[in-house]
Amino acid sequence: MRLNDCHNIEDFRLLAKARLPWPVFDYIDGAADDELTKARNTDAYGSFDLVPDVLAGVETIDTSCTILGRKSALPLMLSPTAVQRAFHWQGETAVAKAAEKFGLWFGISSLATRSIEEIAALTSGPKLFQLYVHKDKGLNQSMIERCQASGFDALALTVDTIVSGKRERCLRSGFTTPPRFTPSAVWSYATRPRWTLDYLLREKFTLPNLDTHVEQGSSKAVSIADYFNTMLDTAMDWDTAATIRQDWGGKFALKGVMSARDARRAVDIGADAIMISNHGGRQLDGSRAPFDQLPEIVDAVGGEIEIICDGGVRRGTHALKSLCAGATAASGGRLYLYALAAAGQDGVERALGILKDEIERGMRLMGVTSTAQLDPSRIRRR
Questions:
Q1: Does residue 279 carry a catalytic annotation?
Q2: 274 with 266: CB under 8 angstroms?
Q3: Which residue, among 158, 349, 332, has the nearest Cα to 258 in the 3D structure?
Q4: What is the pTM of this model?
Q5: Which residues contact 320 (CB under 8 A, 6 or more apart)?
Q6: Residue 370's CB: how many other CB atoms inside 10 A?
Q7: pLDDT of res. 289
């Protein structure tokens, strides 16, 4: 299978599986416990049907929307994801350049493999930084100040990772960051020479947004579960979120909100947006799908705060359904991570091009000429 054979996100997933050592692929592809929530995140979109109009004069359409004060060419964000250079040597650089080319928001993680400053210098497109609250308050403040100095457009506080979900695929494979060549996986690494040589011979793998404060910012191998369970602040609460919003001073989102009650509290502390998210099914298995929870949250806070439906997006029509149900935009991580792992920047650009085409085609077939026309009248629960 080659890049030109990829015509949807599932195709990129299969190509990534062929090109990555299995512990690395399973880190991207896996989720918590029985992985029920991960499957529901995408399946939820299949429970709703679009209701198209015809004869609407759709020669010219506008797929853009405004997210957190900046224009996005599509109602789609590229969610922040960790350790991207473990998947392809270009890492966040590839995603930043592809996002800028397509006029999209993208985010980098606290556990990014490119620095805040490096990403800021790469692109003038809209940029979000995802903050994990560490027990080390100096590290939290350092990352906020570096984002301020680098001109990041928004900060998203992730609120659903106070402890790690039980990611059983990673337990079986022994995946760490940086990746280790464990005995059970040596053959997989040996039979993926392109990935293995890139990993061994290119620049040293680091987590540069952490390396001034914690050993895990250097080259010490640690599992993501161990990192979350030892380094992150389990005492984080609404006062913490309010303080971080005040310290940051710019556009501020909470990522990981799933209940209407928490959405209301996000409004109360002055957040600009919430990302309805269950961390791609990687934390609490059995959690609701973001798209299923969207109507309840829209009923509670719609019009008062931007609502981004995060997770499970595999098609352009999934983004359209999210907008019909009241979201400001949709977002996802695996939708571009599979493509990054498959072919670097070329892969991400091809994936985004496919999603762009699907959004444009879907709008025309629905008889809408702007994203503002995507409202509840155009969707029905099956």
A1: yes
A2: yes
A3: 158
A4: 0.95
A5: 50, 75, 359, 362, 363, 366, 374
A6: 13
A7: 98
Going by C-alpha positions, the residue among 356, 359, 349, 357 that lies closest to residue 3 is 349
Distance CA 16, CA 10 (A): 10
Return d(Cα 199, Cα 136) in angstroms, integer.
30
- Contacts of 154 by beta carbon, 8 Å cutoff, 6+ apart: 68, 126, 127, 128, 129, 250, 251, 252, 253, 272, 273
Residue in 88, 134, 279, 318 annotated catalytic: 279
User: CA dist 38 to 44, 116, 373, Å?
Assistant: 10, 29, 30
> In this structure, how many other beta carbons lie within 10 angstroms of the beta carbon of residue 7?
10
How does DSSP assign 196-238, residue by residue? HHHHHHSSPP--TTTTTT-GGGTT--B-HHHHHHHHB-TT--H
Provide the 10 A C-beta neighbour count for residue 338: 29
Please give the Cα distance from 156 to 98 (Å, whole number): 21
The number of residues making up the chain comes to 382
Element spanning 25, H or E:
helix 22-29
The values of phi and psi at residue 326, to 5°, are 115, 0
CATH number of 3-372: 3.20.20.70
Q: How far apart are CA 155 and CA 174, in angstroms?
A: 31
Q: Are 17 and 258 in contact (CB under 8 A)?
A: no
pLDDT along the chain (382 residues), means of 10: 96 97 95 97 98 97 98 98 96 98 97 96 96 94 97 97 92 85 84 92 90 64 80 93 97 98 98 98 97 98 97 98 98 98 98 98 98 97 92
